[in-house]
Amino acid sequence: MKSLCFATGILIGILAFISTEIQAQCNHRQSFDRSPVADSIDAIHYQIALTSIDFSDQTIEAVAVISLRPKLTLTQIPLELKSLTVSQVNVNDNPAESFSQSGDMLRIATGNTYGPGDTITVEVHYGGQPFHEAWGGFHFAGNYAFNLGVGFESEPHNLGKAWFPCIDDFNDRATYDVLITLPDNMKGIAGGSLVSATNSGDNTITWHWNISETIPTYLASVVAGEYALNSDVFSGMEAEIPITIYTRPVDSARVAGSFQHLHEVMQAYEAWFNAYPFERIGYSGTAIGAMEHVCNIAYPHTAINGNLNSEYLLAHELSHMWFGNKVTCSSAADMWLNEGWATFCHHYYRKAIYGEESYRAFMNDNHYDVLKNVHITDNGYFALSGVPTQITYGATVYNKGATVVHTLMNYLGESVFLDVVKAYLDAFAYGSASSIDMRDFFSEQSGVDLTGFFDNWVFTPGTPHFSIDSVVVAHDGNAYRAAIHMKQKHKGAMYTGNDNILEVSCLGPEWQVWTDTVHFDGPTGVSIKEIPFEPQLFVADLYNKTCDATTDEQLIVRQTGEYVFSKPFFKLYVDALPDSAYIRITHHWAPPDSLKQAVEGMRLSPYRYWQVAGIFPENTQMRGRFFYSDGNTLDNTLIQSENDSVVILYRSDAGHDWQWVSQSREGLWSIGYIYVDQLLPGEYGLAVWDRQLVGLGAESPDQQSKLLQLSPNPAGDTIMLTIGKMTIGKLMFYDVSGRCIHECPVNQKSVKVNTSSWTKGVYVVKYTDQKGKFLDAGKFLLK
Question: What CA–CA distances, in Å, run from 622 to 10, 103, 681?
Fold first, then answer.
């Protein structure tokens, strides 16, 4: 029993049908579409001198000197510059023959012919009010100015061109010098290392920064304003690395609290991913963010608050120095190589700081959200590789990407995985990689052919689903020989993968645990294993190493009572318990097996089912409560109208057909609970009777006379509840997360409730008597 990992449930939601918004962990988007000039010319080095930043007029004046190499024979040099006006251009120290601006294009006529092998130096004088959108671009915020290298609304999204002329392409990498001239009460910060801070003698200081490693334009940065410097040094595995955290003076005292684990996160990342790939660890407070500029992360002021609420964001952006900055995804279609891996890191870092269980808990939460919400947030199921432009920066890329990295880690084994990741980051250092590059390199480096894994998890929409179909056990001397029959389905696509590897565990009479992996191809497979004790229960993926289309919770029950399993949408009532019991509830996000004999007027859920498993002492008595909702996160494909009467069916295992089980229902036709009076181990699936076909009428709970009348509906600041036949009791109001947000007694026929401070949305009100017996329920919209 000591080797089992158990988790207790938390309060299940009454409502689960309104999708929650995914909060993108790195609040920006990127596009890796090719620049219109990238095929003709390559940038080697940029020197950008911001000679004037006017905080009142919100303008800049600057000079950029760019070293270029043609890829083709050309007489005209094309560059990109957005919303800023060019006043002078020199080519190789001579005035350009001519230049013109049209849209975001700057075209410079050289008067000479250049070709591959030549080096051209272009000097551009320019200024004006720089472009910004709601998120990306060059921003002014009072006496502060900063850039964010990509934008939500711009197409393409890269916005180096918002503050300097460039080849604004995510695959075009160059070194940088950035010089920022400011009043002497301000500081200018860019990426790389500080070369000098020169007092010009006119109450200004010029801050000179150098980035020695090549980076794409979207990772270059500038921050200017009245900053306080909080400095430190990290003893890295290869060097002493300076840490600079620039904040507003008012935020300086909060740095210690918010960044208290920065050293530990860095130690973990270097241990896992090899030495830090740049010369400085830098964060600068900005009005909005976050954005992973090299050595100068734009970090929102609100995250520098003295506590650890935004520590995940600190870890996310820092991990980009390896995933995104050292190795960049080669196209927007493979953005998960940047953002999915960084999202994985902002969960995985917790292992080093808070322990393995913390990491698993946060990854399990993320996985649950992926299965329940991501296809709604992103308006469909999408493969990780080849995502369309509209969801390049969506929840599929970030959140599902993280679950696939977690699964890949356990598919290879954590130690092998980390060794391969280090080799990958070194092999593709300061360059780009695609999903195919990763697949082939990881395969070669690990000795494991990952074709099947990438086909199933990366190149196919949705999520694979695995289950144990059945187990046949034969006693063989002192051991037991088990034939474990596996089954594969897929959530979100008609696909069956190969090269599947899944852990299977067996629990024995003393709750001892045996674990091994099963390997199979196609929809079904069988694996023969020898078990060193008499098997009591077989469990797939006991330790949640594979993020397939299941969510489960398990615990040891030692006394009678009520136990909530929130992620499986289930509540357990234990009425009699002679001894401790182990119980595991699995919510399968895949269609149950069909009825062996079709029943006219009945439809099984095409989307989900439950499994109740465990080790129960004799004479245990249990009941169960199963949640249903016609909301788009659960049962909208099953419950389609008031004519659909929801029931639950049961089977002990895959060898038996679905059958009716004694049950009762609480709630509305569209949302509520089904109670099973005698809960047995096995599978439980939702189904509906079509009343128009089978003639259900007055006996249906939905057709009973309503006690509650709600008005007005939709409601405003108040709602009136009128009770047809009053019974002393109480009213309980639930929000969309299932949280009871208000209760009030019922001792008269009319109850008026003030809702003025409630969040707008859908609510359910439940009416019970003094003993808690359900009497009625209603649903209303608060506008």
Answer: 19, 71, 10
Q: Comparing 737 with 282, which gets the higher pLDDT?
A: 282
Question: Is the separation of the CB atoms in 150 and 218 below 8 Å?
Answer: yes
Per-residue pLDDT tens over the stretch 544-577: 999 999 999 999 999 999 999 999 999 999 999 9
For 351, what's the count of Cα atoms within 13 Å in the CB-facing half-sphere?
16
- What torsion, rounded to 10 degrees, do the Cα atoms 140, 145, 149, 151 define? -10
Residue 766: pLDDT band (50, 70, 90) is confident
- Count other C-beta atoms under 10 Å from residue 412's C-beta: 22
Q: How far, in Å, CA of 221 to CA of 293, rounded?
A: 6
The pLDDT confidence band at residue 30, using thresholds 50, 70 and 90, is very low
- As beta bridge partners, residue 139 has 146
pLDDT for 168-217, tens place per residue? 998 999 999 999 999 999 999 999 999 999 998 899 999 999 999 999 99
- The ranges assigned to domains in the chain are 227-301, 328-461, 549-702, 705-782
First to last CA, the chain: 51
β-strand partners of 750: 722
- CATH number of this structure's domain 549-702, picked from the four choices 2.40.50, 3.10.450, 1.20.1280, 2.60.220: 2.60.220
Rg (CA), the chain: 31
Q: Residue 275 burial (CB < 10 Å; 0-12/13-18/19+)? A: middle
Judged by phi (left if over 0) then psi (alpha if -120 to 50, else beta), residue 674 lies in beta
Residues 191 and 361: their CA atoms lie apart, in Å, by 35
pLDDT digits (tens, 9 = 90+) for 499-515: 999 999 999 999 999 99
Q: pLDDT tens, 648-680?
A: 999 999 999 999 888 999 999 999 999 999 999
Whole-number Å distance between alpha carbons of 423 and 185: 45
Q: Decide: helix, strand or coil at residue 41.
A: strand
Going edge to edge, which strands form the sheet with 621-629? 561-565, 570-576, 621-629, 671-676, 663-667
Q: Give the torsion sign (CA, 662, 667, 672, 673).
A: negative
Q: What fold is seen in the domain 227-301?
A: Zincin-like (3.30.2010)
Percentage of the residues of the chain whose pLDDT score is greater than 90: 80
Residue 331 CA, chain-centre distance (Å), reads: 20
Topology (CATH) of 705-782: Immunoglobulin-like (2.60.40)
- Segments of 272-399 assigned E as strands: 281-286, 297-300, 327-329
- pLDDT tens for residues 402-444? 999 999 999 999 999 999 999 999 999 999 999 999 999 999 9
Within 8 A by CB and 6+ apart from 376, the residues are: 19, 632, 633
Domain 328-461 is in which class? Answer: mainly alpha
What is the per-residue pLDDT for 699?
37
What's CA 23's distance to the chain center, in Å?
8
Q: What percent of the chain has pLDDT over 70?
A: 93
pTM, entire model: 0.85
Question: What is the distance between the alpha carbons of residues 84 and 573, in angstroms, rounded to a whole number?
Answer: 68
CA atoms within 13 A on the CB side of 60: 32
Task: Give the CA angle between residues 341, 347, 350 to the nearest 5°.
Answer: 135
Q: For residues 552 and 546, what is the distance between their CA atoms, to the nearest angstrom?
A: 12
Cα distances (Å, whole numbers) of residue 549 to 15, 82, 457, 518, 614: 21, 45, 11, 18, 20
Residue 281 near residue 242, CB atoms below 8 Å: yes
The contacts of residue 173 (CB under 8 Å, 6+ apart) are 214, 215, 216, 430, 431
Same fold, 227-301 and 549-702: no
Confidence grade of residue 692 (pLDDT, cut at 50, 70, 90): low
DSSP run (H or E) holding 351 = helix 339-354
